[in-house]
Amino acid sequence: MDSFIKENWQAVGGLVGMVFTFLGGRRLKKSNEKSMELENLSAVREMEKQLIDDYREQLNEFRKLIDDMQIFINEKDIIIKEQRVKIEEQRKELLKCK
Length: 98
Description:
Blueprint: H1 2-7, H2 9-97
């Protein structure tokens, strides 16, 4: 065995080199795949963040719209109450005249 290795040291060295190259290539390929996965995941997270920000902005716009509508309704309620008071006063005056 010892003499075989000594006589064929170049072939054995080449074979060992090929095995290391093959294993190193596989490791590099897996590393590149992981890098691509991380880049894709990062892009997806950025899109999710943008989507959430858009939803928050829309929600804030809806809240402002609801607040504005509530103010409008409250103002109209006040006008209605004032008109009811006037109507009641006019009704009382009309009853006095009869």
